[in-house]
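Morning run. Coffee first, then this:
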Amino acid sequence: MTDMASCAAIDVVCIASWNADLVSRVTRPMARGETLMAHSFDIQPGGKGSNAAVAAARQGAKVGVIARIGDDDFGRMALSLWTRASIDTEYVEIAQNECSGVAQILVYDDGDNSIAVATGAGSGLGEANVDMACKAIRTAKVVMASNEVPQAATLAAFKIARAAGATTILNPAPAMDLPDELIALCDVLTPNESEAQTLFGRGAAAMIVTMGSQGCALYQKDKLTNPITGWAMNVVDTIGAGDTFTGALAAAIARGESLGQAAESANAAAALSVTGRGAIAAMPTLAQSKNLKNQY
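And here it is:
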């Protein structure tokens, strides 16, 4: 693990899920009981939290993760990825005799995908992990999480962040019931269209609904305030596009952009992310995202 030279150096703290993506590419979705021959198979880094953390780092933010991984090859894969991305890992717990999370992913010829996630050691992430990282949370500009981590950990982190004045971002995926207490602690929610249906009328301060190639839409107190047009991209696959959006949004807010500006930045980053294979490969740098935005 790395040492944290100064908590104040961390712009974005991510309550991070991690899993290894086991990716098979097939022509189309399968029917129940059907077997299809895959074009290819890859093992790639994944997990919504880890993906978002890497995306934020690519966008220039100084990022730290709070995570729990297994003492196995997949766990070492996570540490290697985060180290290469210059992500602080001081608050990563390595769980002995536990397996890291995995996601079984089918990618179809049209670029869409289906995913089944087994969270592994990440299911044990809790308030104790958050308490160990409280100084980093208090000095961060943005704290983000997703529904892939236990709600107790997210609640604990967002309470600390709210008290310290940090912006809180929750990607409410995979879709599940969110308690009112958690929604009240979220400054920004980043659902897709289906996830958003259960969140309207719940009192969310702001939601940025992601709509794939159609772009995204900023709602504040359930009122549409800023529709943002999508980009026509050569789609290779859509794995990690939503995570890229959330991470790029966090980085943009951390560098001082308004919520509307940050949504535009995140929209550009997510568009670029679908042009390569896997969640990580095509995640853009800040310069690449700015170049695409300048074409708008």
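Residues 259-273 form the longest helix (15 residues). Good start to the day.
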